[in-house]
Amino acid sequence: MSYQYTAFDGVALPLYNHEQGHDPMASEPTLLDSVGGAFDWVGTGRRKGRKQLINLRGIYFGETDYLVDDVGDFLVDDVGDYLIVGNGVQMLQAQVTALREKKSVKGTLWRTRLYDDVLEWKTARLLQIGWPRKWDDHAIIGEMSCQFETAMEFWHAATATTTSGSATNGISLGLTVDNAGEQVEDATITIAATSGTITAVSLTCAELGISLSWAGSLASGSTLTIDCDAQTVRIGTTDSYSGFSLGGSHTAAGWLTLAAGANPIVATVTGGNATITIAHYNQYP
Prior knowledge:
- 5% of the residues lie in helices and 52% in strands.
- With 285 residues, it is mostly beta strands.
């Protein structure tokens, strides 16, 4: 097993004697019945996945947890007995309770790549938790099962990759966004006005079929954020979607779909100067 689910929304998952499935998200069929055969309605394009269930099983084990000082020495009471945080039963209950409190919660599911301990994540919702009780467990072993649901097709790197540059009024700025993973559709674009009042912004890439534009009023010190995943356009926290549009030459499936490798983006601002940043997460199946 090259990966291991390790945590959800800040809670450690059961890892003793674990069983986990790490299949990539399935894609739905694209063939439709036609006269004398079948028709692939997607054509030569890539059919992305839509949703996935992730299942795992594992064991929590309750062990007595001792209090230690800042150098790792055990603490004792007046008669020399070790001080404890909790006994095995209490520690098992604490682990199970922490997980059960996340039931129905939408949060970050983390997996670890075992050969180098690199962390990757997806946003998921914890749908079900199973905990069959057996006498043989003696209240210190909890055999747990979890089921998660996610709409994210690919696992995201722990930190975002940012590409930025300084754009001058009316002069095209070239940005090369290096994507080291699979196709990205959830990048975020920020335009931080540094002088003047920006009245128009455009981002284009003929190779990728991208043509985005925005018109409005972006004063110096303000930031326009285009979230390509949530498909929102805001100045600060104020909605500014009315000024956003896709150009006639825009053919990409999303707003800013980044292919694997180097992606050349041309950005232009009108009316002032700005720092333009494109942030994305490298993603893996």
